[in-house]
Amino acid sequence: MASQGMKVEKGITVAMRDGVKISLCVYRPDGPGRFPVLFAASPYQYEMDEVPAYPLFLWRETGPVEWYIGKGYAYVHADVRGSGRSEGEFEFMGLNEQKDYVELIDWIARQPWSNGKVGGIGQSYYAMAQWLMATFNPPALACIAPYDGLVDQYRGSNYHGGIFCSYRSVWYTSLRADNQHRPAGGKGRAPMKFDLVGAITEHTLDDAFWRERSPYWRLDQIRCPVLSIGHWGKMGLHLRGNILGYEELKAPKKLTVTGARNTFEAHKMFDQIEFHERELLPFYDRHLKGIDNGIMDTPPVKLFVRGANVWRAEWEWPLRRAKTVPYYLRKGPSGSVTSLNDGALSTDKPAEAESTTSYAYPDWEWVNGVAVAGPDGRVDPVRRILTFTSAPLAADLEVTGPVVLKLYASSSAIDTQFIVKLTDQHPQDEAARTKSEQPAFTPVSKGWLKASHREKDLTHSTPRRPFYTHTNPQPLKPGEVYEFDIEVLPISYVFKKGHRIRLELANGDSPATDGVFSHPYHPTQMGTDTFHHDATYPSCLLLPVV
What we know:
Blueprint: E1 6-15, E2 21-29, E3 35-42, H1 65-70, E4 74-79, H2 95-109, E5 114-120, H3 125-134, E6 141-143, H4 153-158, E7 159-160, E8 163-164, H5 167-180, H6 196-202, H7 208-212, E9 226-231, H8 239-248, E10 253-258, H9 263-271, H10 273-288, E11 301-305, E12 310-314, E13 323-330, E14 343-346, E15 357-361, E16 372-373, E17 379-380, E18 386-389, E19 397-411, E20 417-425, H11 430-434, E21 441-450, E22 482-495, E23 500-506, H12 511-514, E24 527-532, E25 540-545
Parallel strand pairs: 3-4, 3-5, 5-6, 9-10, 10-11, 14-18
Antiparallel strand pairs: 1-2, 2-4, 7-8, 11-12, 13-14, 13-25, 15-24, 16-17, 18-23, 19-22, 19-24, 19-25, 20-21, 20-23
């Protein structure tokens, strides 16, 4: 990576308070002077910064290092303890690692090539580290810019709505292998002993293990300016954190949410110099170089409105002008999609006598989670689950803000789970519909809740965003009707005229549709769930309509 004008110093070690030596790579302009410093910390080994910044290498999340050097910044990439060339035992963002961030920032500020101001940089793990380091308010930390970074390890990644997600277990296996293995049998670092997979399966509730590693509980302590950048497509990891983090901060703050549809698009965006020049450099220039460029005087919120595919600036989040409109679950049929029930979704309230909708599980046709093979052999994610679909929209409909599903349900089991998907269903040719071909669709948002985890944390819940304790699971009484307020992740989306709004509901999902952020179907999930949608139990999707 070294080039004319950039000096690269690998293998610099800094001793921590307990004697553990943390290894750094320092990139800086090759010449005299004191420079503001961008600080990145991860277990992804700075020696791997040599690989090209392609989405193939999803952990290559540093941003364009050499470009920043050319803009008059130094850049320090640390291998966190127990990874890469650093000593100590890896503990996945535990308190020791967090204290290391603080000591390293202090060390950076004292170097002869530093101007004493440090800014956080990086995606995903690097972004989570930024949230954490900022809660300690080290004097030299002048700003952070967490790109794609959750703030709540339990709810944001490992147990969506209390439902176990397999992602982090797969991630850790890959991380350990990447850190330990070398080509042709070359000797790698000592194995990572920490059993993160065991810890995830042991800590099924939101206990001290998760809270130590979750900056959410300390966000009000952050004082430095924050630029939080999230992506509408990162629903299974990070999106909630970037938005929730912004909402809860008391410090100077800005929020950007991009239209990246998935992990790969979000990664590619962070590799692009144009994105950094437009979105991040002005923020760093203001807080690390003291350039009065007016960046903090512009509207604090910048949203990519999907469907309309335009950027829009806003002075607030959530939007006060968004009106909550209930879309009620109805019996149907909608006549527009092939599913177990083909229910309807309507702004008209249901009648008193409207019958319920039930389904038994597991379904005999489910082959890959709840997905099935359709008549043409392709994966069909809705044929054997419940759907509630609106009539074709008479005009474009913008929905921007947090979404809630108010669901009245009973079960034959003592526990069940709800995996909710909000979808834009595209118009379909009538000839294709008569052949039971499924209409095209665009995923818009998701929500999750394990029924036994329905207890709300009243301190942190709002009418627009239910927040659950995940500390006191309570079994269901079979046959009893319960009210569940399910958080569906925020959106900014325009459903076009002629399109339909579709709600999908099941007790599982599928790797075929949800990738690494899916939830394994457990063998205890056997029973019948019943959803109530009448005047007494008006189940509805609460949409913030602009």
